[in-house]
## 1
Amino acid sequence: MSTFQPVRGMRDILAEDAQVLNYVIAKARETAGLYGFKEVITPVVEPFELLSLKSGDEIRQRMFIFDDLGGRKVSLRPEFTASIARLVTTALRNEPKPFRVFSVGSVYRYDEPQRGRYREFWQANFELMGSSNPEADAEIILLANSLLKTAGLEGYAIKLGHVGVLKGIMSQEGIDDKTQNAILQKMDKKEYEAALALVASEKCRNVIHGLIELNGTSPFDTVQKMQKQVQDYEKATASVENLAAILKLVVESECEIQAVDPAFARGLEYYTGMIFELYVPQLEIALGGGGRYDRLIEAFGGEPTPAVGMAAGLDRIALAMQVQEIQLKTPQQKRVAVISIKDEQKGEALKIAQMLRHSGIWVEFEVMGRKMTKALEDADKRRVHYAVIIGERELKESKVVVKDLAKRTQTQVEIARLAEKIKS
Ligand code: AMP
């Protein structure tokens, strides 16, 4: 019989990679705490209708959709924001604003698999709801910056933009929402010619083309030039001003913004304001992104609630850490193998293993019934730090033999002092 492989786009994440991913998850959780975000856990399976409400065609077409046995049309979540929006309009409805909500878990999209792009991947999601002030946008950008910093990544860049600029121009020109979204999606994929081809007015085409071509010497310079470029468009001008205010707050605090992209668009339809993405030089794909979406909660039947959020792609952050060869800053856990020389001492050996575990030492107990040399060879291969050997003679003196597998030395240690000795 042939063996089974994971479904295309799905992965088994083995020990070493799982350790890095879990490290990133821990960093995301830590960062959430530092910024006052409370964690919530929402279902992986959600009503299709909820998830498709504002996702946009891009994501809607890539959702895992099925009927459950009760005949409900459901989907695996492709992101967290819709679930959080549901919470805000129900269970969290009467909570004082602002809400700061954090979630972490796997999400599912039928993307074309490649390095850093999977059909099941992990996101950490942060939503700050209730404020339309630029300091809320700034907080989310600073949080994203903190996350990459605490993961130890080097040379990462934050790219900043504002969908209100393009949307403002297009609305004033009378372009309907559907066409606007189609244009933004093409811009997101950098298919600029195809995007411009959808714009009927020549003036509008020229202004958007000007934004695409616009090159500033610094983020502040770019924003100034954007201001000139859109001066005939009232809402677009207000959006550039908003972008300038956010940029100022972020840069004045501590965080460097590497680029403002005047023609920046993101795949999700629900963005209304500032948008950003995170990159490292070694990977072309974004490590995370987010932005402002002031009308989403209303679309879900809630009260008008301005909101800003971001999702970090944890697999990609883990990948970037591996590419940059970043050492995990976790305290080195002491690991030992406990082996009894003879069967008669197995009970004593287990008792000692339990005692060590109670003091926080990680123990791999010999369960294969192997002879001592084989068991030691195996312990060596597994890179445990010490082998604790339980023999009849030593037990009589309340002692065991401790073998340091790296140094290849061995000593007798009193059982009462064993845990303390291993830890030191
Ligand atoms: P989005 O929800 O589309 O804004 O995506 C947020 C982040 O999730 C992206 O910046 C990526 O880091 C990550 N991401 C999106 N799609 C995938 C995928 N197919 N595989 C791995 N990570 C992904």
## 2
Amino acid sequence: MKIGIVLYPTFGGSGVVATELGKALAKKGHEIHFITYSQPVRLGGFTENVFYHEVSVSDYPLFDFQPYETELASKMVDVVKYEKLDLIHVHYAIPHASAAFMAKQILKTQGITIPYVTTLHGTDITLVGRDPSFEPVITFCINESDAVTAVSESLKKDTLKHFNVKNEITVVPNFIALDKKRTDSKINRGLYASPDEKIISHISNFRKVKRVEDVIRVFAETIKKVPSKLLFVGDGPERYGCEQLCRELSLCEHILFLGKIRDTSDVLAISDAFLLPSETESFGLAALEAMSMGVPVVSSNSGGIPEVNENGFSGFLSDVGDVNDMSKNLVHILTENRLDSFRDNALVQAQKFAISKVLPMYEDIYTKLVR
Ligand code: GMT
């Protein structure tokens, strides 16, 4: 099949999922055309069957706001027409689903029929999408999509609760390639922690919804009982406040801010536990990535996280904001020789989301539409 994938090219989970999906489909012989405004961070170098089409955004002085959606729709028309695509798969509803709808209508006037699949990722529904100014467009585009998927049961429920959706929503969970092992890492763990110290990590875009300050508060309690270091990966609006908090709590020498890193597997490979205290999380891809490297997860129990992290098995779940419970769970995992069995369980849990199990679910949807 020839498939157009529309995505955000940045570090966000939806872009990572879309890129990894495209790469895996290309490996299976499908022809993949990525359409977005800059090269997706996880795309890497030259890959067989993969093409990248950049949407150039006009900077004409009349525009206070650049008409990205219009330029994206035009690019989709162009790519569908000249690359002879069979279908388009858009990741994240805003504005990709509405641009796909527009492209579909334009192509119809030229005698070309192109189905589009919309995958809902989370904040397009639970945060941004719920803004009343977006609601009519989102509801319309979801209902007009030829197929709609959500990355968790929780996100499907949220979508049906907040939008008047008549279309069927299929849950296709996020997935993991399982092609990296912690033993493959070339990172010298000794540079970050002494042999008697554990390494705890957190990876996110440092938005409010991630509750990154909770990570520091959990760590502040944990370090009283378990000698440890905290590694932060990523960057975003809350980072400044977090650095302040580290200073206030006199924890600077135990906490490292590594910034944005393209491939986080090396950091996970030297981690002993992963913290994800988010306010809400439709899935929690970062937790799955951690588990796939044998890192148990201490997280909140919000949104789709309980579908990913099994309480008492691959890690633990606590109520949002309950830093004492999170710290208690972290100490439990890291002490009395329990870590190895939690590591094994984390890996077993990650295998439930192996790409080999999830890819056929998307291919099934595509085949039905193209037929
Ligand atoms: O977490 C973010 O802020 C980024 C966001 C995105 O759109 O990239 O992530 C969402 O999609 C990911 C991939 O499906 C999910 O794993 C994340 O849980 C989800 N984020 C939220 O729901 C807050």
